[in-house]
Amino acid sequence: MKLQGKHAILTGAAGGIGLAVAQAYLHEGAKCTILDINEQAPDELKSIMAQYPNQLVYQRADVTKTSELPHVVSRAEGIFGPVHILFNNAAVFDLAPLLESTEASYDKLFSVNVKGMFFMMQAVLASMVKNQIKGAVINMCSQAGRRGEALVSHYCATKAAVLSYTQSAALAMAEHHIRVNGIAPGVIDTPMWVHVDAMFAKYENLAIGEKKKQVGLAVPLGYMGTPSDIVGAAVFLASDDSSYITAQTLNVDGGSVMS
To answer: From the candidates 58, 155, 203, 223, which is the catalytic residue?
Structure first.
């Protein structure tokens, strides 16, 4: 029960990595507010909510509507009290050859992955400072934020920005004893990979499923990760076990990036 008595907000957590982390936080005793773009919670989340009726709520939120985010945080606090943890996970993905990449794709990725990430973090940090909470923020980066990729320029740039903002926010919040860290997953087998694999197949002239197979084999450990492989780091960085760690982005990628 490492998170007993804590209130965690998790963005983009109606499925995939976010939902796996929410389940881990609930198991560790936290109360969780899950935010996502869907009007209604999906069936898988509804079943988990039934298991934790007094610990878990779902709110629709669009992180690109930045003026609304302080109100989103206030509504969450009205249910579970001050926020102790932010798992800042909402993100979108796109790819295209550099010379074919569009302004619309650029705007979409930076609006969610950078602007939404930053202003959600800002809203939660303002609450933590106001309530004198020595909290923890975890921003979801990516191995894509550590290096560029020919077909994935905008996404890589957004995740590099997440890494940089994590460092800056950690330094800004140090005087308040609020820790800000990141997690940089490698290739993680989530439902989004159906979409990603199809895009790579189009631009690299591959059979469907081939890119997914290739990236798994390229990992030093020899396989793609799963959302459950992220939860240990997410619990660690949210808990007092990491009380002297801030401004770090932890690679959880099977050895793909060494730092």
So the answer is: 155
